[in-house]
Structures are given as C-alpha cells and as structure tokens.
Amino acid sequence: MRLLLVEDDNHVAAALSAVLARHGFDVTHARSGEEALQALVPEPEGFGVVLLDLGLPDQDGYEVCGKIRKRTGTPVIMVTARSDVRSRIHGLNLGADDYVVKPYDTGELLARIHAVSRRSVHEEAAGGAETELRLGPVRIELPTRQVSVNGTVVQLTRKEFDLLALLAQRPGVVFRREQIISEVWRTSWEGTGRTLEVHVASLRAKLRMPALIETVRGVGYRLVAPTA
C-alpha cells in the first residue's frame, strides 16, 4: 500500500517511515501542507492512506485535511498531541477517518491504518465497485464467499475464507498476528495464536499454493500475489 506521510519533523518521519516500510508500506514523505497537496495532484487516488500530522509549518493541519478531502476520498488519519475531545470532533467533522494522539503505540497506529483502508475497500464494494478479488489463478468472490483456483472451487471454512479475504485485500502488505486475530476471530491474541497458524497451514494445503501466504517472522503474514 502507498502511504502519504505528512510530517515536518525529519527525525520522526525517518523513524516512522522505516517502521512502515518493514510492514510493507511504500511511504512518500511530505514536510508541509503544500508538499502534501502537491503530492496528491498528479494521482489523487494513488495513496491508500494519508497520515497527517497537524503541527505543520506552513498551514493549519485541519485546513490541510479539509483541502485533501475536497480533492480525494483517500482515508486520512490525523496525528497530533491535542487530546481534547473538541479537537478530535473538529478533525472528524472536516473529513478525517481517524485520530491518533501522541505519543502512540506503533502497533495501534498500524492497526488503525489497516482498519481505515479496509473500511474504504468495503465501502467501494458496497457501492457496486469491486465484488471479487483476483490473484493470478485464485478468484475470491466476496458476495458468495466462494474461492476457486484455475476455475476449480475450493471448499473453505468460514474462518479460512475470512482470513484469505483479509490478506487478499492488500497483497504484499504485512498483517500483524494481533490484527488478524482481532479482525477474523474478534478476540484478543492470547490463546489464539496456534489457531491462526493452523488456519494458515490449512489454506496453503487446500489452495495447493504453499507460497501464497508468506510468514513474516516475528510480525505476521502477507499474501504474495502469484504471477500466473
């Protein structure tokens, strides 16, 4: 996923960009509101998420958020040290999709990024856009919850389908184990880790594509889109 990071502090941006890159994000760094708006001009739908710090040197972050929302529907997550409720409400009213208060936990930030991007995908599907995902020979039909490989239907359990559909929404992006457990099993990580491993192994076997789901040691899993 391509992500636009709007942050005037180069040290903060460098550290965060490194973390995001390790989790599969292609990060573009804008140091000001104007740079952010310029980055969106040639390809307004080219980014999956905009991570917008409100403490910018040239423009008020809220103003930048409003301008971004006028030119693109890309999800925007505001990042700020302002923790009062009024500030959060103001940001959401301007069109922000989420609001993260500094200092934040990196795991939480990653989960929120994935959450708003998935929400955007679901809204597009609900609006009559994409209703199926194609990954080489793999076809995932979202409305009917049917999966086929080279035209042959593969019988999956409900959780297996949910796991595959989650990973397939963002091929190449690493999903943290905790995030997968939260989204697919609607519970916490404790005591569920082995269940996730079993479901991943089952998917690899049923699809007969062991390389489709890659284990990222110490982090989670990502789907590697086949070329044929």
Query: How many helices in DSSP terms?
Result: 8
Low-pLDDT regions: 124-129
Please tally the β strands and state the result.
12
Percent of residues in helices comes to 40-55%
Listing every helix as H and every strand as E from the N terminus to the C terminus, the arrangement reads EHEHEHEHEHEEEEHEHHEE
Keywords: DNA-binding, Phosphoprotein, Transcription, Transcription regulation
Modified residues (4-aspartylphosphate): 53
Organism: Streptomyces edwardsiae
Domain OmpR/PhoB-type: 130-225
Describe this structure in words.
The chain is α/β, with parallel strands linked by helices. The protein has helices spanning 10-22, 33-40, 61-71, 85-93, 106-126, 158-168, 177-185, 193-207, and strands spanning 2-6, 26-30, 49-53, 76-80, 98-101, 132-135, 138-141, 146-149, 152-154, 175-176, 213-216, 220-223. Helix 2 (33-40) packs parallel to helix 3. The protein is elongated, with a radius of gyration of 19 Å. Mean pLDDT is 84; it is low at 124-129.
